[in-house]
Amino acid sequence: MPHHTFKCSECIPERTQHAVIKGPGEDLTSALPEGYLNTIPGTISERGCAYCGAKHVIGTPMKDVIHLSHGPVGCTYDTWQTKRYISDNDNFQIKNTFATDVKEKHIVFGAEGLLKKNIIEAFKQFPEIKRMTIYSTCATALIGDDIGAVAQEVMDEMPDVDIFVCNSPGFQGPSQSGGHHIINIAWIKQKVGTVEPVITSDYVINYVGEYNIQGDQEVMVDYFKSMGIQVLSTFTGNGSYDDLRAMHGAHLNVLECARSAEYICNELRVRYGIPRLDIDGFGFEPLSASLRKVGLFFGIEDRAQAIIDEETARWKPELDWYKERLQGKRVCLWPGGSKLWHWANVIHEEMGLEVVSMYTKFGHQGDMEKGIARCDTGALAIDDPNELEGLEAMEMLKPDIILTGKRPGEVAKKVRVPYLNAHAYHNGPYKGYEGWVRFARDIYNAIYSPIHQLSALDISKDEIPVSRGFATQRMLSDVNLSEEIRTSASLRQYTGGYDSVSKLRERTYPYLQNQLAGV
Asked: Which has the closest alpha carbon to 134: 203, 190, 209?
């Protein structure tokens, strides 16, 4: 059997079904772990909740919007500024976060009045922003606040504003992926079709499932524009609220992250007949194939090929340089969402890295299917691991680097394994041809960092030469500070009246400075 039992989880036998080692000749029916299930009590899961999936992942990258969480302030604080969803309006959505700051008294007596007061206050505080999204949380969902009614009341009183309501309390789904689904469906039900688009090209797309992490979206949009394609809206990186209301006017939905946004693409196809085309912006070959597919759909393959030829000639030699030096290095691929399978094969083919493990905290079994299918025999696949299982996996696999989020990444650093932030990046963007070289450079720098190499040395038993070589030791030897002058009387005599060690330090400090300066 391919299932793997972690020693730290032997007391939770159900966890055995959530980890497998891909064996030789096995197909996905025997090598697929359980996934997207309710968290097993006692496993100390590190998952995000449905509210986090809706607000933090999908909603917040929308740039010209007041994102208001109706609940305790901790909910909005936990989903603020942890990813680099940059925007071209001076990063309004990153710099500001909004919450109604619900307290115990509001749970008892209701918080609808507080919500209305906060909505009006936020619009008055930022008069240039006329759009808002309100997110419910566990607390306000449990007490039954009618957020939709309050929002409509404000819109009736303030006709120039528009408000989107996302009822995505944290308990509504096994993980943050449930929140992805909720906000996708809510957006198309409430807002799509309420603004008519301005069409400026014969080729019009919605770029879906792209969140502009450190400028990823801008790289891809530049390629599309070079092909003469109009990007009507981006769902939701650097996306404009009103542009996203006009998604029904596109000719094609180009989907990047299927885990977070395939739901709205499928609904747009059902309601408006807009076809869906899945693409991949990571890696030379996947990106080239994606540009060709989009070009083929519109009959402009030659424009796509021109970009591919120019970019490949410019950046392929640099990628090959890194591949030669990264060949055979072992990597744990522990990211979120679609990067699990976007990266699994291409970092091996184009960078020479060996993927020895993959995991997902909130992905579905479809994500694991694609990820495992693209990994070599022997790879360890884990669903919803906790910190102890991650540490045990690192001890067993001994990877050279881990590609993951900040929380497990900082744990890896403590056991002297370098990591790159797969969620918010270290030095992005990572999409595009230049971006992929930048990714390879970051991996190279992490693995070959002298600091990380020194951190692996065990100096706990090394002899420390305290008797020579240190300026403080030479200073103490020169002044011949012996044990007999440590009494206060001797100290006063030695120091010429100073009756404390601090005064002695003041006397000797100039001497120490001179020693360090080589005087």
From this structure: 190
